[in-house]
Amino acid sequence: xxxxxxxxxxxxxxxxxxxxxxxxxxxxxxxxxxxxxxxxxxxxxxxxxxxxxxxxxxxxxxxxxxxxxxxxxxxxxxxxxxxxxxxxxxxxxxxxxxxxxxxxxxxxxxxxxxxxxxxxxxxxxxxxxxxxxxxxxxxxxxxxxxxxxxxxxxxxxxxxxxxxxxxxxxxxxxxxxxxxxxxxxxxxxxxxxxxxxxxxxxxxxxxxxxxxxxxxxxxxxxxxxxxxxxxxxxxxxxxxxxxxxxxxxxxxxxxxxxxxxxxxxxxxxxxxxxxxxxxxxxxxxxxxxxxxxxxxxxxxxxxxxxxxxxxxx
Amino acid sequence: xxxxxxxxxxxxxxxxxxxxxxxxxxxxxxxxxxxxxxxxxxxxxxxxxxxxxxxxxxxxxxxxxxxxxxxxxxxxxxxxxxxxxxxxxxxxxxxxxxxxxxxxxxxxxxxxxxxxxxxxxxxxxxxxxxxxxxxxxxxxxxxxxxxxxxxxxxxxxxxxxxxxxxxxxxxxxxxxxxxxxxxxxxxxxxxxxxxxxxxxxxxxxxxxxxxxxxxxxxxxxxxxxxxxxxxxxxxxxxxxxxxxxxxxxxxxxxxxxxxxxxxxxxxxxxxxxxxxxxxxxxxxxxxxxxxxxxxxxxxxxxxxxxxxxxxxxxxxxxxxxxxxxxxxxxxxxxxxxxxxxxxxxxxxxx
Lengths: 313, 350
Known about the structure:
The complex is a heterodimer of chains A (313) and B (350). By secondary structure, chain A is mostly helical.
């Protein structure tokens, strides 16, 4: 069973590889090291938050507030920085703010039993509202160099954010596959009632996954502010849809209980590669959305078709 | 039930704590805004002193009546509209009138119409707003006029409506200015990439149309591509990177809204291409001005939101005083900000 899963996730590389090869043939610049590094950086931002989204979806829950939380994490961190707080403390404040939203989400969903979609839509508005109140629509700028290095620094000409994303992916993958927590999360997503009866602390599992996704979202917001040398009030707007799409393309079920962090890597890579390829292939901006939609459906369709064939055998 | 109440209380406390904890610092940017606004006016009126002084001024005025105007903002949390609002507030201080601001944090024409109707119902003495969509806002303006409430439009006009006056510069003209500036900056030889906001945004459409028309007669000017960054800074940087890869011959970038030029600036600085590529943008955000100072961005087109706001209040006051307005379309003009005037353009505007 385990082996089969690994093979499955390997085959999922198909659509992505096809896209890369086609783009590379038409415009060889695609495979230039500087383009690949740019691409890796774009993927790393989406990937960090998508690991969190994978956890939430695995637990058969949903979080629409992550985009706003990204904005909030960056804004709080930026606010502290422009008031000359030390970098480490500012980052912790940004993460704390994100964690608070995560806790509120978790309390609303787990303890108050408000549907996740509604609860997190609510916090999505509140969190973005707080950002608007704080920033009054103006970005926090300028930010100190020590902070900017987090988003702009490189090691062997690879941006730090790529290493950070890799680190989070490895931990995220390990926790799901190898720890009791990961197995419980899968079980909770697969069948909440059965998990409860078999002694899993369902509330605790769901609670932690919501706090985790907010923390990661806030963290991306902070790195993004460092990358952009400014905390933008509208940072992260619309990212909830991109991240959820990337995770689902990566094979994680919207209904919980099935999926993997590895798949999420592929989903994120596909999303960002499409957007990179659109420009390199000189696709008109008016046609890009159609193309993106078609490629997304085709990628998932290829996968579904293949799984069906396997099942029919 | 108990748990539920507790949880709701808890979450409210948390959001409140978030707000309170930061309350002190929030006032700083607000205060500095106020200072800027006051620095922009010639009259010594101090906006910070607040309403008390305004009211005193009113009573000391001959006519003894204070007007209540309403400003319906399309987007209350945006730098540009905050600048308009600041202009309106300083205009209100100058004229000794009260202004009530209504608006949402999302651009929504239905909401704007609703707020205009609210102002009509509240029997305001005048309304300042913008015609986000002339077709939708027009009837609301007509309703206000029918109710005897004069409407002054800023930024975007609805010429077919019964609005009393319009203060602003068309986005087409602003884009045309940007195109002219691009010709000047590149000596008429440029392969241009455009970074716009969202696809289908009318402001962007008009500016790009103006830009295209400005460069149409120059044989050496060519637009290679138009990409949309959705007014998101990170997306903007990614688009700029991708465009540099996809069009190695590109030597100029035009950002048709506030994000594009700054995003391009970040990428160019990162890749050591500052100055090699001519960047012209829109709006005078602090970052954009810094990039102009350091030579990464060549120039930016600035509309005059502060002027629009103050002029609108002045016109409304004059109408209410029974004066005839001879000029109903007032061109507020644009300013091209480059390294030469980046430090002085704000004073020059007065």
